[in-house]
């Protein structure tokens, strides 16, 4: 069934969860003034905003400077950051399980290379592509097994894998099969990167757990996404929105469709939520 066009909900959500790349951010990586203002307006109207992303914890401070002070669930659910950027919770991969995961995937898919995200640090193998982390200075370079060595005191939050030749869909299926129950396996960039988190840790599980502590049920949440790593999130909430530019699997799964990221689609829907809250307040006053 095709998603229905975006429309104001009869009852606005108590919380909005939104992915970033391809969803909140435009295709050129920028955030519009309209979208930043819509996020602030939602918070002002009593609708909590949570940024839910596959981006690593080390990027959260810069992210909050760009977007504004909101709760962030980073690394596909492996870390929760308060609006001031401090780490509230992490859900790491146990070191032994992470090493076993790397060994299984490496054996099953010759030519694969790995990178590892920690809380505030990043390491990669020499063959891992530099375009995925840009000009950042990286101190941890070696085999994944060396980077994950027991006793390092750095629990891994996410492992990334790259293959220089396999198409993404084929690479993902082989990696998922090799990882088995040792990890949550997903992909989000459209490039040949596959991502692994601790078993049971997804954007959805972390969001639902965190919001439940605030007394907000999953049915009171609206979520926005565009890529397969957003599917658990969209399936766990009361109102799910696929961006018009979303992956076909996301378009098929979400209940509603928002305009594209380049049309400030999230902002358009949020403005409708805020209008409904404001109108109700004026009627009750």
From TrEMBL:
Q: Which InterPro entries does this UniProt record tie to the protein?
A: HAD-like_sf, HAD-SF_hydro_IIB, HAD_sf
Q: What is this protein called?
A: HAD family hydrolase
This protein's superkingdom? Bacteria
| E.C. number(s) listed in UniProt | 3.1.3.-
The major lineage groups are: Bacteria, Bacillati, Actinomycetota, Actinomycetes, Kitasatosporales
Can you name one GO molecular function term for this protein? hydrolase activity
Read off the Pfam families from this record.
Hydrolase_3 (PF08282)
Assigned keywords, A-Z: Hydrolase
